[in-house]
Amino acid sequence: MASAARARPGVKAMAAAQSRLFAGACATMLAFGIVMALLGAILPELVRRLSMGLGQAGHLFLALNLAMLAASLTVGPAIDRFGFRAPMTLGPLLAAAALALIGAAGAFAQLVPAMLLLGFGGGALNATSNTLTADLHSDEKRKSAALNLLGVFFGLGALLMPLLVGVSVERAGLSPLLYGTAAGCVLLALACAAQSYPQPKAAARGGSGGFWRLASNRVVLLFGALLFFQSGNEFLLGGFISTFLASGIKLSESVASFSLTSFWAAILVARLLWGRVLRAIDGRRLIVASAACAAAVSVALAAAPSPGFAVAMVPLLGFSLAGIFPTTLGLAGSRFAAQSGAVFGLLFAMALTGGMTLPWVAGQLGDIWSIRATMSVAPVGFVWILAIASLSGRIARCEVQSKG
User: How many CB atoms within 10 Å of residue 163?
Assistant: First the structure.
């Protein structure tokens, strides 16, 4: 009895420390959502202020994505080897510096280094928040549930930035918002620097975690291929739904914009739900069911016979696909718990590659045929996700049987 009583304060202290770390991860993911939505939200104002062309705007997106890709491949292994403190602090500081540079920019050339800083800082925010959340939970179901809940904060950040830009530009201009957000990032960096983090994983073994061996691991490649198509579809649908509704279904731009908001809102609601439900169900089954539902709904949307039907399909599609990405990360984090940073880095790199590739392919098909052809790429991606998830589940069962 006495020993149990003495143990309780220690258990409570560990739970409190875990809660603080998860809160820090959620704040970091909120910042990442803001970073990801920033360029698209402020682009019209930058085009007006700096007399930029659309080709120059495309260069900014390219610089942002390339820097984020570089961060995905470097920050993850660094977390495994050196721990969380440095990247958790560096990510917000780089984002703050980028925001300050954008606010002060007087020419297009000054925006390019800002985009590189923003992309690398954003990649660090993404890698650290997801890896830390995964490392805080040893149970596979709790890990996937926590990562779904973490994804809610990404969505909040992505929704918050366009709203803030809309209010700020009309009342005070863009610069005060950018400087204020930069100050918030600095405060986040200070809070992250003051936290106590789990010990580095690979450093205890004196190695880097076998990064390049992981890159050829068939299970990692399967998870990466799944996230390639999932991320590609999320970028594709987020980028083309409003255009499809406006030009393909002939809805007004305001209705199309509201419908796109319902897509992201449904993702938030679904991830809140999966954050609870996944503690009781198998993550692989959720991925298979989600991919099957998303494939069916995306076919229905692409072939929508009426405006009302199309509008109804949009939030249903967001709800269907919401659990795939974070649940896959949870499965990968459980499978490679000792090398979670490196594995997540590889997976984010493959996901980002899909996010750049599938929307481009869909856009080319739309130019050749129509916007419905663009939207028809999404069902193909979900069918691939369904096939890959089924294959990875079969491999997992075979491994369990061989061990038994």
Answer: 11
Domain 21-209 has CATH 3.90.110.10: no
Contact 360, 258 (CB under 8 A): no
What does the pLDDT look like over 114-124, one tens digit per residue?
A: 999 999 999 99
Angle between the 54-82 and 2-50 helix axes, to the nearest 10 degrees? 160
Residue 399 — very low, low, confident or very high, per pLDDT cuts 50/70/90? low
CA atoms within 13 A on the CB side of 282: 8
3-state helix, strand, coil in the chain (%, to 5): 90, 0, 10
DSSP string computed for 91-110: HHHHHHHHHHHHHH--SHHH
How is domain 210-404 classified at the architecture level of CATH? Answer: Up-down Bundle (1.20)
User: How crowded is residue 374: how many other Cβ atoms within 10 Å of its Cβ?
Assistant: 25
pLDDT in tens, 202-226: 654 545 547 788 999 999 999 999 9
Do the beta carbons of residue 161 and residue 295 sit within 8 Å?
Answer: no
How far is residue 140's CA from residue 313's CA, in Å, rounded to a whole number?
32
Same fold: 21-209 with 210-404: yes
Phi and psi at residue 199, to the nearest 5°: -65, 150
Residue 356's identity, in one-letter code, is M
Taking the domains of the chain in order of start, what are their residue ranges? 21-209, 210-404
279-323 tens-digit pLDDT: 888 899 999 999 999 999 999 999 999 999 999 999 999 999 999
> Minimum mean pLDDT among 18-22, 39-43, 76-80, 259-263: which range?
39-43
Instruction: Locate 112 and state its tokens.
Output: 């390019």
Residue 168 has pLDDT above 90, yes or no: no
Contact (Cβ atoms closer than 8 angstroms) between residue 182 and residue 35: no
